[in-house]
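Quiz preparation item.
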């Protein structure tokens, strides 16, 4: 049996590879908005969980989240609006949580950068609305991360 850390690392890698391949990210949505939870790792931090496919998202639409349904987001929209917005609001994305709500929480721009790098590995190019190119978006992320961490 693998430990939770190995499992969440696998789920994280699967998320990055699948969303780059499919071009979609899945969340849980209802008329009141998107499902979110308190961080398990950081006090007073909110996490928005996302999944790499609708079936994985649906497994978490139980108990207090039974009012939610899987809803997709285009990958470019997720990267330039959601990831950038979550970074600005100090909100973390959670990726491919399982039915026990185990999953990785990480910095939004780190996740965006990992996805962009996976897109390059897969020879895929997204069209952004707010950036001229995927390369320009990647440079913006690298600049912000470098500035904030040095």
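Solution:
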């Amino acid at each position: 049996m693998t430990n939770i850390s190995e499992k969440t690392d696998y789920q994280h890698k699967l998320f990055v590879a699948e969303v780059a391949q499919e071009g979609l990210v899945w969340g849980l949505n209802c008329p009141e908005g998107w499902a979110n939870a308190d961080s398990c790792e950081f006090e007073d931090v909110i996490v928005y969980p996302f999944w790499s496919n609708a079936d994985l998202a649906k497994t978490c639409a139980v108990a207090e989240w039974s009012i939610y349904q899987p809803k997709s987001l285009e990958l470019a929209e997720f990267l330039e609006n959601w990831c950038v917005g979550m970074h600005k609001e100090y909100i973390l994305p959670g990726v491919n949580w399982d039915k026990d709500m185990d999953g990785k929480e990480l910095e939004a721009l780190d996740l965006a950068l990992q996805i962009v790098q996976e897109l390059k590995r897969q020879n895929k190019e997204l069209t952004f609305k707010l950036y001229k190119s995927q390369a320009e978006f990647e440079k913006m992320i690298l600049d912000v991360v470098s500035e904030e961490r040095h």
